[in-house]
Amino acid sequence: MLPAISLAESVVEVISIYNRPASEIQPLLLPLLENTDQIVANGDSLIVKTSPGRLQTITNLIRKLDNPLNNLLITVIQSRDTTAAQLNAGIGFDINVPLNHPADPRGRVQGYYKQFQGHNNNQNTQTIRTLEGVPAYIKVGNIVPITSNQIYRDGYGYPYENRSTQLVEATTGFEVTPRLVGQQVFLDVSPWSDRLNAQRQIQTQEVNTSIKATLGEWVDLGGVNESTQSSGNTPFGYNRQSGQNQLHILVKVDVVN
Fold first, then answer.
1. So what's the pLDDT on residue 109?
2. Which element (helix H / strand E) includes 22?
3. For the chain, what is the largest distance between any 2 Cα atoms, rounded to a whole number of angstroms?
4. pLDDT (tens digit, 9 = 90+) per residue, 115-163?
5. Cα gap 72→131, rounded to integer Å
6. For residues 7 and 159, what is the distance between their CA atoms, to the nearest angstrom?
7. Nearest residue to 122 via CA among 134, 114, 133
8. pLDDT value for 98
9. Is the model's pLDDT at 233 over the cut of 90?
């Protein structure tokens, strides 16, 4: 005689998710499933098909994972003479950031911009508030008219000039998506900075990277370091010039109420 095989009857349950996207929690539950089990993310709920015994275990884990999203304040500094080590040591400048407006629970963000410019320094400070896991974007700047001249020759060899003007954006900003794991934050961040030089040309510095940082600490994403040298004879003698252009891109993430 063949041994009797008892199959546990599966049940289907719809479990509401209150704080996080269901699509974020669903993959974390897959290791708990048997071959015949299923979990489907459906907007703000999870549809679970499993045995009655495992249903309670899965439900308890969902309640632990469905914790409220944190409000985050992300600050990006693009500076020519400030470093992350200086800021973490308390050397540098004060950042006047408005902290009295909570992030919108529907995922919208609020930003803040401040710029310092001097003879040897060009420093931009931008902050934005967002919920963890929600992409945030901030951009400030101007539309700059750039005029170009081109010389052509007609069929008889006579030169004529063609002048055209284009409107070009010169902006500073960043895009970022933050994710928290304990006291660590994982960032997909892309800051950039456009600058109009004396020749009416747009100079751009840009970084695109993913990093891990500690909450409340400044991190140096990278930078640009350029050296220029020129020399030549003038009516008054020999002239030699050199220049240094460096840019630090710094970021810090704080949890705010």
1. 44
2. helix 22-29
3. 113
4. 444 434 467 888 888 888 888 888 776 777 777 777 888 777 788 777 8
5. 6
6. 91
7. 114
8. 45
9. no
Sequence-ordered list of residues with C-beta below 8 angstroms from that of 129, at least 6 positions apart, any chain: 71, 72, 73, 74, 101, 102, 103, 109, 110, 111, 136, 256
Instruction: Identify the pLDDT of residue 253.
Output: 92
Torsion of the alpha carbons at 40, 45, 47 and 53, rounded to the nearest 10: 120
Number of residues that make up the chain: 257
Do 73 and 24 form a contact (C-beta atoms < 8 A)?
no
Contacts (Cβ under 8 Å, ≥6 apart) of 159: 151, 152, 153
Tokens of residue 54, six digits: 């495992």
Nearest to 127 by CA among 81, 173, 193: 173
Tokens of 66: 């469905």
Residues 6 or more apart in contact with residue 148 via CB below 8 angstroms: 163, 164, 165, 166
- State which amino acid sits at residue 208: N
CB 212 within 8 A of CB 184: yes
Q: Which two tokens stand for residue 74?
A: 């992300």
What amino acid is encoded at 190 in this protein?
A: S
d(CA 109, CA 97): 14
231 within 8 A of 48, measured Cβ to Cβ: no
In sequence order, which ranges of 66-182 are alpha helices (DSSP H)?
84-88
Instruction: Name the amino acid, one letter, at 135.
Output: P
CA 63/CA 48 separation, integer angstroms: 14
Q: Which long-range contacts does 111-117 make (Cβ < 8 Å, 24+ apart)?
A: 111/136, 111/138, 113/138, 113/140, 113/172, 115/172
Whole-prediction pTM value? 0.58
Residue pLDDT, tens place only, 9-59: 889 999 999 988 899 899 999 988 888 899 999 989 999 999 998 899 999
Q: What angle do CA 108, 44, 188 make, to 5 degrees?
A: 45
